[in-house]
Amino acid sequence: MGEFHIAVLGDGHDRSGFTCGVPSLDNFLRTQAGQHARKRVSRTYVVTRKGEATVLGYYTLAADSIPFDEFPPELSKKLPFHDVPAVLLARLAVDVSARGKGLGGDLVTDAFRRVLLLGDAVGVHAVHVHALDDSAAAFYRHHQFQPLPDQPQHLIIPVQTILRLIPPLDPAPSG
Ligand SMILES: CC(C)(COP(=O)(O)OP(=O)(O)OC[C@H]1O[C@@H](n2cnc3c(N)ncnc32)[C@H](O)[C@@H]1OP(=O)(O)O)[C@@H](O)C(=O)NCCC(=O)NCCS
What we know:
By secondary structure, the chain is an alpha+beta fold. It has a single domain, classed as Aminopeptidase. 30% of the residues lie in helices and 28% in strands. The protein has a seven-stranded mixed beta sheet, with helices on both faces. The longest helix has 17 residues, at 103-119. It binds coenzyme A. Residues 20-22, 25, 92-94, 99-105, 131-132, 135-136, 138-139, 142 line the site of coenzyme A.
């Protein structure tokens, strides 16, 4: 991560040339991400080279919930019988020029850290994604997400699993 920096999308970021190969993901970043943030329906975070404005990748988070009866039964045994509070990893993409350098994984890790911080303030049980295709679903499975029953492109990862994978950066002081 040394040469890269992840920050909330701002006016100074250049996203005009962003190309990940999926037009809807490119267009969202270029034309909608800022608007959605102002309306507080989602928040987008971008990765750039340190000191540069060109966006090389991004992810978007929004509040979400998963119907109890869609949750994997083995994970819902001790949960209350109502919608499961979650965060939606609504979009994630890396520019074609920057693929295979670990940026996608770094963005997932950064999203997980933000979810852990959020989870200190409100109940968040899992992170939820809607994979666009089989390849995206494989990417998320590689990052320990598991598919919802009968919905191979809807995947979740419990926050308890994230805590095992990624300890919080700033644990709350004890006492
Ligand atoms: C999916 C995507 C974000 C991956 O970005 P990337 O920067 O090339 O990925 P990374 O280099 O960070 O790879 C991280 C790890 O995931 C693995 N990986 C990458 N793409 C994968 C895929 N499609 N399936 C399975 N594993 C994959 C890598 O091998 C790597 O493994 P490692 O940590 O064991 O070395 C990128 O290909 C992309 O933007 N695709 C188009 C948009 C898209 O499909 N977004 C997904 C959300 S719908």
